[in-house]
User: What shape does this take?
Amino acid sequence: MNEILEEVTQMIQNGLNSVFDRPDVLIFNILAFIVLVFFIKRFLWKYVTSFVDARQKALNEELDHAAEERALAQSLQEKSQKDYELMKEETRVLKEKLTVEAYKQQEELIVSAKKEAKRRLEQAEKDIEFEIIQANEHIKQSIKEIAFAAAEKIVKREIDENVHQDIIDEIVRDSEVR
Assistant: This one.
């Protein structure tokens, strides 16, 4: 391996030394280079520069387009973020509103149920009171009938029925006062 490396090094040195050892080859290479530069400048330079300019222009347009796209994406991202925050706030407000409304409906239902229970209780009390009054009236009527029958047997047809009724009513009223 070292032999190959030394051989390559020797060849490079010989090649470099040969250029300086032979000035005619050096002059020929310089002239060939100048002719090549002239030929390229004269015939190909316009095409090369127009290609490079077109490529530069295309790159600039792509960069400008990319910058516009980036700015558009940034603005869309900001708008999306604002819309998200707005929707989040609207959702929070709606949730609070629905919660308050639910509690309000719950309170209304409780108040309504209490009113209904109170109304039913009052109606039951009225019904009981009415039943008591009817029972008392029925008892009074029964007492009148019993008293009338008793008085009828006692008096044995001395007083007519209307007078008996007035007497019995008076007796019942006296007994209620006591």
User: Anything to note?
Assistant: The two ends are 148 Å apart (CA to CA). Residues 2-177 form one domain.
